[in-house]
Structures are given as structure tokens and as C-alpha cells.
């Protein structure tokens, strides 16, 4: 082999080794597998690719989840930390709260997603800054817009019910904001506490005769069992709306005023990109959703199932799902 050939081979080997060394590993950790939460991860990875972080060359990914079991979260986080990732994408509030405490290597940045209020949850100090290790994309709802939407779909609406887990910080924030929006809109908000998904049918049943519609907030205990809630809603002839869009349920629900989980993942990727390029989490303010992050839908079949017509003003609306 000639000297020239040897030098070329050495250069290629060095280039390959350098490329391999520069490949960054990102650990994605979620509370569980759910279509909406999976959209966060998918949106994140697609946006990262668009930003130049090609999967398999610039970055690699792992995915771990706790199967919606809080007792498994420490195990998930121990696995994630053992991977020594360049960055962690942590999905849902409870998992992020545990990650802030449980990931002991404080050189690993944590980008949160699917978190309503990271300030109340203690993940970041305020809305202008991240913490030393964490920042991300929030899913702060716009309940003023939600109730305005419900007024158009159900003219004359006076009371809206919802189900919430009093033990979840996300749920507490949602209830506070929804109640405040209800006061401004002249709509009474009736919240029914639910600690376990097994209680959902009975608690949903309890709203019969009390409200004109039910709107489901971004609650883990509720969102994992929406089909069950929908069955009860149809039985009691109650229009049911959700804060998470799921096309598989569009015939069972009356409609959706939903934040895009995919876009939430994309916004988290924008923040991850900045961190991987050297920015400090503390210098990056958490992302707050804007109008374009929400989608409105009304289901013709879902409304018919509970005996309600589509208002004339909406019969040509792009919101309609037929």
C-alpha cells in the first residue's frame, strides 16, 4: 500500500471517528404511550431533522415511558441518565417534576413538553427564564377562546362541566384558568374531581342535568380514558368537547378546541436546537402557545348523537367534521 493510500485511509478513518463523536444522543422520556403524547415526540423529531439534526448521523434517539404508572418514573429516569444523553426531552408535568429532582447529573439539559404551567409546577422560576437545567414548550390553554368557541357551537350555553384530578398541578392550573374564563364569559364552570380512571363513568354521569356541555381539560387521568367518557356522554345525551384532537374519536365527541401536541413538540425542538448549539436553559424563556397552536372542530355525527343540530351560522364552517 502506497504512502498516499495510507494517508487517505487515515484521513477517512479520522473523519468517520470525528463524525461519530459529534453524533449527539437525545433521550425522550414520557409518562406513557398515548396518541397525543406520541405526537409530541414525532413533532420534536421531525422539527429537529428540519433544523439540521438528521437522525442517525447528527443525533440518535431513545424512547422510554412509565406506562402511566408513577411508581415507574424513577426507573425510567435512571435509565435515561445512564444513557448520558446530550439532552432529555421530558413529556408531561409529573415526569418533568421528577426529572428535575431525579436526574442527578446537572450537566444534562432537560427540555419539557406537554406541560401546562411550568412555573406552578416548579420546573422553571418564572415565564421569562428557564432553570439552570430546564426549559421548554408549555401547553398553556386559552380558555377565553375555548368558551367563545362553545358559545358558537351551543348558542345560549350557561354551564360547562369538566373532570379534573385534584392531585395534579396541571389540572389545578387548568381549573383555575377555566373558572376565571367562565366568569368573564358569563358561563358557570362545574368541576368534578376524579382521582382514578375507574371513577370516570360515575363522575361523568354526575354532570347530567347540571351543565349544557362538558369540556375535557388536559388531564392525564382523563385523557387516557376519553372513549369511556364519550360512551357515558352519549348515553346521557351530553355534548362532549375535548382539549386534545383525536380523529379516531371525532364521531363520538361533539367537537374539539385543541392545542396541537405536534406543534408543541416542534416548539420544544426549537428550544433543544438552541441548547445543543450552546445556549443555556436559564437564558431561554418557556414557550407560550399562540392562536395558531390551537385547532377548532365540530363533529356533525357527534352532535347528532346527542340530539343537537349544527347552528346555521356554522353550516359552512371549516370547523365541521362530517
Report what the structure shows:
This protein is an alpha/beta fold and 322 residues long. The protein folds into 2 domains: 3-140 and 261-290, Response regulator (Rossmann fold, 3-Layer(aba) Sandwich), CATH 3.40.50.2300; 143-259 and 294-321, 3-Layer(aba) Sandwich (Rossmann fold). Helices cover 39% and strands 19% of the residues. The protein has 11 helices and 12 strands. The strands form 2 sheets. Strands 7-6-8-9-10-11-12 form a 7-stranded mixed beta sheet, with helices on both faces. A 5-stranded parallel beta sheet has the order 2-1-3-4-5, sandwiched between helices. Residues 8-21 have low confidence and may be disordered.
**What does the average pLDDT come to?**
92
Structural class of the helix and strand makeup?
alpha/beta
Main β-sheet description: 7 strands, mixed
CATH superfamily of the largest domain: Response regulator
The strand line-up of the biggest sheet is 7-6-8-9-10-11-12
How far apart are the first and last residues' alpha carbons, in Å? 71 Å
Q: Which percent bin holds the helix content?
A: 25-40%
Which series of helices and strands comes N to C?
HEHEHEHEEHEHEHEHHEEHEHE
The portion of residues forming beta strands comes to: 15-25%
Give me the Rg, rounded.
Answer: 23 Å
Shape: elongated
Under CATH, the topology of the largest domain is which?
Rossmann fold
Using DSSP, what is the number of strands? 12
Question: Given the structure, what is the number of helices?
Answer: 11
CATH architecture of the largest domain: 3-Layer(aba) Sandwich
Specify the oligomeric state. single chain
Keywords: Signal
InterPro entries: ABC_transpt-TYRBP-like
Protein name: Putative ABC transport system substrate-binding protein
Organism: Gemmobacter megaterium
Amino acid at each position: 500500500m502506497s504512502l498516499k493510500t495510507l494517508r487517505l485511509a487515515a484521513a477517512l478513518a479520522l473523519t468517520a471517528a470525528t463524525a461519530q463523536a459529534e453524533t449527539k444522543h437525545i433521550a425522550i422520556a414520557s409518562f406513557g404511550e398515548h396518541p397525543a403524547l406520541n405526537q409530541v415526540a414525532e413533532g420534536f423529531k421531525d422539527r429537529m431533522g428540519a433544523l439540521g439534526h438528521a437522525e442517525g448521523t447528527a443525533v440518535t434517539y431513545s424512547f422510554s415511558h412509565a406506562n402511566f404508572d408513577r411508581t415507574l418514573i424513577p426507573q425510567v429516569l435512571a435509565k435515561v441518565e445512564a444513557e448520558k444523553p446530550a439532552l432529555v426531552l421530558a413529556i408531561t408535568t409529573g415526569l418533568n417534576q421528577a426529572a428535575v429532582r431525579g436526574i442527578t447529573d446537572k450537566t444534562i439539559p432537560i427540555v419539557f413538553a406537554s406541560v401546562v404551567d411550568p412555573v406552578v409546577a416548579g420546573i422553571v422560576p418564572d415565564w421569562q427564564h428557564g432553570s439552570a437545567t430546564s426549559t421548554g414548550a408549555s401547553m398553556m390553554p386559552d380558555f377565553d377562546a375555548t368558551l367563545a368557541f362553545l358559545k358558537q357551537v351551543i348558542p345560549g350555553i350557561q354551564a360547562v362541566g369538566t373532570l379534573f384530578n385534584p392531585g395534579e398541578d396541571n389540572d389545578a392550573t387548568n381549573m383555575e384558568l377555566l373558572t376565571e374564563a367562565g366568569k368573564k364569559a358569563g358561563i358557570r364552570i362545574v368541576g368534578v374531581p376524579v382521582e382514578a380512571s375507574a371513577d370516570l363513568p360515575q363522575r361523568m354521569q354526575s354532570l347530567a342535568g347540571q351543565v349544557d356541555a362538558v369540556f375535557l381539560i388536559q388531564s392525564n387521568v382523563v385523557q387516557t380514558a376519553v372513549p369511556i367518557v364519550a360512551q357515558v356522554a352519549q348515553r346521557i345525551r351530553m355534548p362532549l368537547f375535548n382539549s386534545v384532537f383525536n380523529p379516531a374519536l371525532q364521531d363520538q365527541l361533539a367537537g374539539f378546541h385543541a392545542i396541537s401536541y405536534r406543534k408543541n413538540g416542534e416548539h420544544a425542538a426549537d428550544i433543544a436546537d438552541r441548547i445543543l448549539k450552546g445556549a443555556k436553559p436559564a437564558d431561554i424563556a418557556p414557550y407560550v402557545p399562540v392562536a395558531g397552536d390551537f385547532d377548532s372542530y365540530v363533529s356533525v355525527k357527534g352532535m347528532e348523537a346527542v340530539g343537537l343540530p349544527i347552528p346555521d351560522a356554522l353550516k359552512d364552517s371549516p370547523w365541521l367534521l362530517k
